[in-house]
Specification:
Length: 275
């Protein structure tokens, strides 16, 4: 994968802070930390794909592009909130959150399963940045998220190509594919996003604050979930179904998209009440 853009590709002089919501700024801060933490995932992937130098090279390039996403989001966040220090928050995030870097086997049970999980992640991030792009009028953030969303779609294609290599001659069961895909979707509720929110938006103002996963997860998702529109969920569902070897354009895909949008709408209402 060639690097198609850099921070110098963005016209930062177009930044227009008027009308920006604090909640959107806070969501972007948390996203910047998660993107910047890709180096740990590169280490993990290279460990478990130890006999596949071709994939290891792809994972390193993926990690470099993810780090660039974090840098772009961080620069925007520091412009939107001059009191925000990305480096300090990133240090707090890394101090309190990490993944097992000594793993030598995929936590998904197989390398094909790991690649399905990576496709699910890229489905979610492509849809997430598309949602921000479509919900902000701030020119710089719209451009940054447009570029990131495209990158994430190409990352999905990258992992899907390697998934096809690992699926050859070793078909995963329908139940196995669904279990991995749905499990990875559910992990969006895990510690990573919640702790990123905590490190970006709570700890800098209150260093003695105690981490509450549920409270910070609710705060993050209240800001993030309201960005989604139906087309963003439809795209994510189709990408996830394709990764799990289901017909992503058939009747089942339509049913899954409709059900997912109903769930998202319910979550949006519930989070509004919680807030």
């Amino acid at each position: 994968m060639a690097q198609h853009w850099t921070l110098d590709s963005i016209d930062w002089s177009r930044f227009q802070p008027d009308g920006l919501s604090a909640e959107l700024i806070n969501v972007v801060k948390a996203a910047a930390l998660v993107e910047a933490n890709a180096a740990d995932y590169v280490t993990y992937l290279c460990n478990i794909f130890v006999d596949d130098p071709k994939f290891q090279d792809a994972a390193r390039q993926w990690g470099a592009e993810e780090a660039q996403h974090g840098a772009a989001l961080a620069r925007w966040a520091e412009m939107a909130d001059p009191d925000f220090s990305f480096e300090k928050s990133l240090a707090l995030f890394r101090k309190g959150y990490s993944i097992p870097l000594d793993a030598t086997d995929s936590v998904r049970g197989s390398l094909a399963g790991e690649l399905i999980a990576r496709c699910v992640v890229e489905s979610g991030t492509s849809s997430f940045y598309s949602a921000i792009r479509d919900n902000t009028d701030e020119p710089v953030l719209k451009e940054v998220c447009r570029r990131i969303a495209i990158d994430e779609f190409f990352h999905y294609q990258l992992f899907h190509r390697h998934l096809n290599r690992y699926k050859a001659g070793k078909k995963l069961s329908v139940l196995g594919r669904l279990r991995i895909a749905i499990g990875r979707v559910q992990e969006a509720e895990d510690d990573e996003l919640a702790y990123a929110w905590f490190a970006a938006n709570v700890l800098p103002n209150n260093p003695k604050a105690q981490y509450d996963m549920k409270a910070n997860s609710t705060a993050y998702w209240h800001g993030a979930m309201r960005l989604y529109q139906k087309q963003h969920i439809d795209n994510a569902v189709r990408m996830i179904l394709r990764a799990a070897d289901f017909n992503h354009n058939g009747r089942f895909a339509g049913f899954a998209s409709s059900l997912s949008w109903q769930f998202i709408s319910w979550r949006q209402r519930r989070l509004e009440k919680a807030a």
